[in-house]
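Title: Comparing notes on inverse folding

I've been comparing how different people in this forum approach sequence design from structure. To keep things fair, I'm posting one structure and asking everyone to reply with a full sequence. Here's the target:
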């Protein structure tokens, strides 16, 4: 695990970006531009659109292309076989896990070959960016907007509950309730147009509007390996 202050995250040679907001109104432009320029790894840009839809995915890839981004394509993590997922995602230089209303589809689809391939790409130096729900799913617990039932996250950001501002999303009271039940965790709030960025040499950066909030559970303490 890499660590800086309270943040402890999955070790790799790439970068992790957890962002909030929508590209359609320009609020994520500063974050997206820096994401494109941060990547040194070879390979295409892969967009995982399981939480959203194909039309939004195509618009997003065109938007990044207009900003000077590398060639990209979407990957169907629901329909493709494991071998294809490992090849298409594992060889990527940038992997973007997109936002959208279909939390269950994203959550279920990422398990297995897809998340393993994302890990492979990250170990090879890729930039991994989670947007909205695509960021929240990397905490220790994941709160789908359609329910108040917490699900185990992928825990790339250890002991965290990541919340991005989205219509119908978990409320601050929901977070407080979960932190009371599990007081050794912390909540990470990311406002639209902002991103938390974690690097391979324990770098921690804030991009865009830099509006990040942290709520510590009552029994939280910094742990070192």
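Reply #1:
Here's my take.
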């Amino acid at each position: 695990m890499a660590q800086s202050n309270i943040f402890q995250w999955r070790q790799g040679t790439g970068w992790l970006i957890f962002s909030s907001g929508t590209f359609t109104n320009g609020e994520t432009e500063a974050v997206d531009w820096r994401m494109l320029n941060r990547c040194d790894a070879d390979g295409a840009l892969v967009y995982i659109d399981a939480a959203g839809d194909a039309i939004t995915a195509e618009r997003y890839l065109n938007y990044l292309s207009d900003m000077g981004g590398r060639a990209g394509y979407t990957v169907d993590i629901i329909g493709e076989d494991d071998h294809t997922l490992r090849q298409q995602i594992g060889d990527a230089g940038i992997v973007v896990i997109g936002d959208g209303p279909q939390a269950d589809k994203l959550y279920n689809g990422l398990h297995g070959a897809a998340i393993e391939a994302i890990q492979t790409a990250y170990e090879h130096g890729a930039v991994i960016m989670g947007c909205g729900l695509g960021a929240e799913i990397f905490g220790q617990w994941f709160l789908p907007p359609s329910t108040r039932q917490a699900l185990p996250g992928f825990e790339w950001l250890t002991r965290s509950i990541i919340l991005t501002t989205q219509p119908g999303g978990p409320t601050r009271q929901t977070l407080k309730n979960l932190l009371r039940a599990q007081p050794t965790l912390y909540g990470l709030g990311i406002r639209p147009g902002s991103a938390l960025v974690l690097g391979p040499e324990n770098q921690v950066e804030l991009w865009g509007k830099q509006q990040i909030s942290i709520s510590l559970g009552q029994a939280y303490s910094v742990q070192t390996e």
